[in-house]
Each structure stands twice: as C-alpha cells, then as structure tokens.
Amino acid sequence: MSERTLAPETAPRPRYDDPSEPERGSDFNPEILDELHALFAASDTGEDTLEADARELEGRHGPAVYSELIRLLSHLSFPASEAKPHWDLVVRHRDSMQERLGEKVDLRVALVSYFLEVNRKLRNPKIIEMQLFELERASAYRDELTGLYNYRLFREHLTREIYRAARCGKPLSLVMVDVDEFKRYNDCNGHEVGNQALASVARLLTTPLRKSDIAARYGGEEFVLVLPSTTKTNARLVAERSRAAIEREPFAGEEALSGGRLTVSMGVATFPADATNPAELIRQADRALYVAKARGKNQISLYGHSRRSFGRVAVTLPGTFRMLADESHTLSTVNLSEAGLLFRTGTRLRVGTILEFTLETDPDRQITAAGRVVHVEVGGDGTFRTAVHISDASNPDRARLMQLIRDAAVDDSRVADPPLLDPVT
Questions:
Q1: SS3 string of the chain?
Q2: Which residue among 31, 221, 251, 331 is least enclosed by CB atoms within 10 Å?
Q3: Are 106 and 46 in contact (CB under 8 A)?
Q4: pLDDT digits (tens, 9 = 90+) for 249-296
Q5: How far apart are CA 343 and CA 315, in angstroms?
Q6: Residue 146 and residue 266: Cα distance in Å, rounded?
Q7: What is the rounded CA–CA span in Å between residue 187 and residue 221?
Q8: Phi/psi at 93 (nearest 5 deg)?
Q9: Is the pLDDT confidence value at 341 over 50?
C-alpha cells in the first residue's frame, strides 16, 4: 500500500479492538477484483495465458489474487494462505486431465472437477460465463448511477482496511460527504438533472485519490472516501481539493440554491485516534459532517476538532534527554502516544530542537528514540511541559513503546493527571 506524502508524519502501530477479523478480510482489494474481470474479458480460459496472467497479478498483488479468482470461478471462498495451494493443485489437475484425455481442458472445467471430485467442496457446481462476469461487476460492487463503489463494497472494504491498518501500524481516515441542499436542487431542476449532478460530484471526488483510496456512494446524495495510510491532517487536504473542485464546477440550475452554487459538506474521522472499529469510525465521521452542516455548509469538519491521528495514554515515567552532543537532562513523562510524548523538565527547550531521549520503563529496560520539540509551556511548578514528535526509533524500541502504551491503557498505577495541552498528533 502506498504512503500518502502530503505531509510526512510518523505512524507507529495502533491497536485494533477486533482481532477476530477473518484472515480473508486482510486479503481483499477491489483493484484485484477489477483486474480479474478485465483479465477474464480479455483471456481465453482454455489457454495457458490465464495461468500466466494470474501469476503476473500475483507478482503485483500477492496471493490474495487466488482468493478472488477461485471465488469468481466457483463461489468458494478461501483465505490467501489456502487459495494459492488450491490453485496450484487445480492447475496440476488440469494438466493430468489433459494428459489422460489427449486434448486441452478449460481451467474452469478443471477447477470444477477438482472441487467436485478430488477435494469435494462443491455441491452445486457453477461455471461462470463471461456475460455473468460483467453483470457481477456492474451490480455487486458498483453503483449504477455514479460508477463508484456501492455501500456493500464500502462496508466490506472499510472493515478490511481497518484490519490492515492495525496490522501495519498506519492511520486510516474516513471522509463522509453530503451534497448541500440537494432536495431543493432536485425539486427545482428535476431528478434527471439531479442524477447528472450526482454523477459529476462522484467524478470530482475521485480526482485527488490514489489507487489505494476508494470513493463510494453511501446512499442518496451521500458519499464516502476511504483513505488508507492517511493522517487526519492529510485527509483534510484531500477532502479540500474535492470540495473546492465541486464548488468551482458549473452545475445546471444551481442558481436556485441559496448560495447560487452546488456545494458539499464533509466530515473527517481517523482510526485509531477517533475510533477502533468500522461502525464507530462511520459514526464519528458522520458527527463531524453534521458539525460542518450546522456551521453553514460547504466546509470540512474534523471529528473532535482535533488533528490527532493516534490515541494517547497518560503515563508517568522517569527518563533523560540530550540535545545532540549536549549533556543529559532529566524528564518525567506526562503522556505518550504512538507519535510523540509530553514531558516535564527543568530545562527550557526551543521549538524545533532535535533531541534524543531515553525512557526508563523498568530497572532493566529502556526505550530510546529521537524527536523534534513541537511545543513548550511553562508549568505552574516552574517546570517546562515539552511536547516532542517522535521522528525515529529502532524497531525493538518501537515495539516496546507500543507494548508500554497497551499496558498503560489498562494499568491505573501509571496514570497521571490529565494533561493541560494536546500538541502531539
């Protein structure tokens, strides 16, 4: 999955509240499905080209290709770890059939024969014709009016992407979009013009997206954007590009609206800072959208009015820091997140200072990392509350930090007073 690079930001591994997500959930990729449909439309499944093309797709997408390939051909579902071995056995079974019969055997026939006679998983065999591929492509995952993915695909994809984000330690942002005053627009211009406007909005929403992002029609005049590996700040930049493009676009009959322009409002929420499961993330993005509507429409609202993409826990730990080759100074942490920390110290630091710090988690273990000072505030006791954004940590130290945060979230003995500032994103 590609990283969004609008504004680089450290993204350590977050937590996920539903580790029971099935294995296949982390394999699915709508791009694989689209490419397989195109492959079947262009290939003769009785020739060796399908086998070679499938290997080429595997090189780009991994063994998840075979999960979708077998599902499309037989309606049997396997996780990638099982699908690839099955596919290899199907190919060997096809070769054996060809040797016995002395003529070419369609891979679909070999697949049905394998699961019907050898592996015995098929009760009602289905051999799919090319026309059915096109019907499935048009109806199962695509919205007919806009051409975007539909609600069904969105819910499946969001669950899988959150699972992937938790596993890979990346943030994921969700953008809820609603066309402002669309009922009035429809009433004044008719449903046909309204449908044309929705199709144009859909097109403009997809313009700034990467291949790993998806746009879907949520229902009616509502849309959603799923942005993997995207912090809340960067999600807002993506959303703003679409919002501005829609505001500039000329729509027929838009002069009937109160502002004379057809516009959209958007709400942004980010995993894991705002939610730890799909349903909660949708609710938070929807609440942010409601705020954008209440504030006058044609704008973007971030859930909780916060730019944070990672959750924080209050932890008190002793430690030290040093500025480049300078002497060490003591510190005591106030809170930690996957992206940074807030600590008290008797030394005043300038914003922008690069420093190395060591946290003493127990007598025998330490966590060492480097970061940049992003905020300094004078405390009531004369110490300086200093916020640091972590820019570098070794893999073992990163893992220890994540474990510390998980433990502290349920260990009241380490919880300190609530922080006075929230500068670490």
A1: CCCCCCCCCCCCCCCCCCCCCCHHHHCCCHHHHHHHHHHHHHCCCCCCHHHHHHHHHHHHHCCHHHHHHHHHHHCCCCCHHHHHHHHHHHHHHHHHHHHHHCCCCCHHHHHHHHHHHHCCCCCCCCCCCHHHHHHHHHHCCECCCCCCECHHHHHHHHHHHHHHHHHHCCCEEEEEEEECCHHHHHHHHCHHHHHHHHHHHHHHHHCCCCCCCEEEEEECCEEEEEEECCCHHHHHHHHHHHHHHHHHCCCCCHHHCCCCCCCEEEEEEEECCCCCCHHHHHHHHHHHHHHHHHCCCCCEEEHHHCCCCCCEEECCCEEEEECCCCCEEEEEEEEEECCEEEEEECCCCCCCCEEEEEEEEECCEEEEEEEEEEEEEECCCCCEEEEEEEEEECHHHHHHHHHHHHHHCCCHHHCCCCCCCCCCC
A2: 31
A3: yes
A4: 999 999 999 889 999 999 999 998 888 899 999 999 999 999 999 999
A5: 10
A6: 19
A7: 14
A8: -65, -40
A9: yes
> What does the pLDDT look like over 350-406, one tens digit per residue?
887 878 888 887 766 788 878 888 888 988 788 899 988 876 655 567 677 777 776
Q: Which two tokens stand for residue 194?
A: 């309204």
Q: How far is CA 142 from CA 137, 176, 214, in A?
A: 7, 18, 12
Q: Which amino acid is at 184?
A: R
Quote the CATH superfamily of domain 312-414. Answer: predicted glycosyltransferase like domains (2.40.10.220)
Distance CA 261, CA 245 (A): 12
Cβ of 135: how many Cβ atoms within 10 Å? 12
Residue 359, beta-bridge partner list: 319, 367
Please give the C-alpha separations between residue 266 and each of 58, 87, 197, 209, in angstroms, as whole numbers: 36, 44, 17, 16
Residue bearing tokens 């609008």: 6
Distances (CA, A) of 299 to 195, 234, 285, 288: 22, 16, 14, 11
Check whether domain 151-305 has CATH 3.30.70.270, yes or no: yes
Domain ranges for the chain? 26-139, 151-305, 312-414
Q: What is the mean pLDDT of the chain?
A: 77
Q: What is the 3-state secondary structure (H, E, C) of 11-63?
A: CCCCCCCCCCCCHHHHCCCHHHHHHHHHHHHHCCCCCCHHHHHHHHHHHHHCC
pLDDT at 355: 81
